[in-house]
């Protein structure tokens, strides 16, 4: 048993947890106004943003418009997008892109103009790419370099966020575990930003880094933040099927004309869906899952044989290289199957990233701003990071500047012998959620999940009375909190909509056109969707 020995308070103006696009862009913007600390769970480039292949959606072409981008977003969101949030996104996105380009970021071009891609759910080519299919890696690397060179920013890698530092209902920083030193370290700040991603790696098959298991959801919920629409998990339709490997095959591959075929070589989406392979992700993922079940095969195939191989290799060099390493030729056919990819719901924020807790802001995938609705439109996630990250930092300029408390002390320990117990708990939870709360759910599978979760929670309470202060027990508790929120949300929503499909309620139901809200100590509640203003 180790006790945290470092009681030093590291004090900053801004504290940013997470090093994806949201965290990096927040840190750079905040560095204009004060000293910034970035704490990150692994290393600064390990994030969902880094692995994003698809691109960034923003209106940059004269033939396109914010209104059309908004219409596509609302359609994909299946009636649960908040109008004002989407309006902010589509109108402020172009300026964020111009700012990024002006700072030195290079996006792919054709004949001197931005090369715009098409992805599922979009009716215009408005997706900006960098390095073909390496957009996330190049954008985050670009910002990471700027962050590492900025004199106002300090980076603390391999620091696991344990909890918020709270006093009198306000957040004053974060308690973290320094993995390298084996002790707790406290960071105090006037403004704390949680940008630590989603929860999809809690499933057995996921496109996310292994660190993305919903810590941020558990931390914020435990402190009193409402969690909204958590039942909506987006499964990416086309992750490479190579054993346990769930390497993402970008939506843009289908945007360039790739076909989905079954083991008999038949296009199973053509003629059944208006946009065929370019339907929104929830539709495509479910169609693939149904085809896999019907044919009793583990995957379907993405067929590119009819496309120009030189163009494919030039457009998707990262994907082609990874496929080749595993023995597949991207210009021919590759095996694919859905994998958990994106947390559509999240911690409730306003249009400035503010949460219910004073001094606490949430941005990126962890936030529920009202943009994504029931199903994220492809490539809206990276631009959301930029737009709302910038808005949140600017909002800190208008809130009162308060004196920082100084009486905090570390209290966490780590029992290294529990490491295997945590890994076992994680495997158990992953298997349970994958089998019972995956692409297709029902009252029966959800009841089974509740029953097994209750048994796990009862066992946990008996075995780990020190969960509030021991590292691994705390991590297991986070897994159980996230699982419970997911199961409760999915049980409550008796319909199928976007990233939530119930086989016992296969239709979208008008009476469920609301946000679900889960708050500690309260029953699940409904929140109205913010509609289009009459004068808009």
Folded structure, characterized:
With 536 residues, this protein is of the alpha+beta class. It has 14 helices and 23 strands. It has helices spanning 21-30, 48-51, 66-76, 83-102, 135-149, 215-223, 251-255, 281-295, 309-315, 317-325, 380-396, 419-436, 443-463, 471-492, and strands spanning 2-3, 9-17, 36-39, 56-57, 109-110, 113-114, 116-117, 127-128, 153-156, 159-167, 170-178, 183-194, 227-228, 233-240, 259-261, 300-303, 333-343, 346-348, 360-362, 367-368, 413-414, 514-518, 525-528. The strands form 6 sheets. Strands 2, 3, 9, 10, 11, 12 and 19 form a 7-stranded mixed beta sheet that branches. A 5-stranded mixed beta sheet has the order 20-18-13-22-23, with helices on one face. Helix 4 (83-102) crosses helix 11 (380-396), helix 6 (215-223) crosses helix 14 and helix 12 runs parallel beside helix 14 (471-492). It starts with a strand and ends in an 8-residue tail after the last strand. The mean pLDDT is 92.
